[in-house]
DNA sequence: CCTTGTTAGTTACATTTTCAACTACTACCT
DNA sequence: AGGTAGTAGTTGAAAATGTAACTAACAAGG
């Protein structure tokens, strides 16, 4: 029997940390706007980067196209985003935030920023810098 | 419009890192043993810590009791674990790995250890130490 | 013993996610 | 032009998860 502990297993600890740190923020977009995590992510991408197609959101957010498709459908039905056909290639649709979508994004991204600061406050500046650098590398890696 | 980027939002980056780093290991327990993540975690706890009740696994793994209940049911049906009634209090059931369960645990925990080393190898010893420390703190936090 | 409260674990149902087609459109090749 | 292949996005069924209600067992006070 090996003595390798789950608490030493990065995928496990990353998952626990991700879950724990998500709980509080999840309440915000859930309670205030009735959004799911997928929807909040789509909203955020459009708010931060402007007009995008669903495919572009898939690529940037590492989300499967069915997830994005359903998130977009729900966000549209709640008037947070609007679709617009692309003349040159009618397979694409440009997605944009509506006024309501922009307002929700402004509210939630400010809350996210504040929450991030609160999370980061428990570390020293050096720790925080290294943590963010390591996480970025782990998150980006296409294949280990 | 705020300039706060999702890539600076710890819950998001943690989630991406967790997902990315889980993919490769997931293949192992899925393809070799047909397990789900919940099942692998239950197996791991029993393999690492010996006999436990479902409740104890819930507490240690931060898993909801329905998840554990279902994971145990599936693992039992595949003969990876065995239940044993507790005489003193018949609400409890002691859970143990069978021979097959122990073999699966030995195989998978060795693979996990090797995979963890591979992940950690992309960081310097200092980075790795700080990363693990920060993650442990983030994962443990009961309420931010 | 009987009531009330608590705990371990399961089950049922609604919500989400995943997987595999499927439609509609564009691109390329001859 | 016509055939083949590829891409963007949607849909439906199956799998997994979350929530809440449930059963069975214990505990403690009267």
Q: What's a quick, concise take on this entry?
A:
The structure is a homodimer of 144-residue chains. Chain A has 144 residues and is mainly alpha-helical.
Can you tell me about this structure?
Two copies of one chain form a homodimer. Chain A is mostly helical and 144 residues long. Chain A has a single domain, classed as Orthogonal Bundle (Arc Repressor Mutant, subunit A), CATH 1.10.10. The first copy, chain A, is 67% helix and 7% strand. Chain A is built from six helices and two strands, in the order ααααββαα. Chain A has helices at residues 10-33, 37-49, 54-61, 65-77, 99-120, 125-140, and strands spanning 81-85, 93-97. A two-stranded antiparallel ribbon of chain A has the order 1-2. In chain A, a hairpin with a 7-residue loop joins strand 1 and strand 2. In chain A, helix 3 packs across helix 4 (65-77). Chain A is globular. The model of chain A has no long low-confidence stretch (mean pLDDT 92). At the A-B interface, helix 1, helix 2, helix 5 and helix 6 of A face helix 1, helix 2, helix 5 and helix 6 of B.
Provide keyphrases for this structure.
144 residues, homodimer, mainly alpha, Arc Repressor Mutant, subunit A, 7% strand, DNA-binding transcription factor activity (chains A, B), DNA-binding, 67% helix, globular
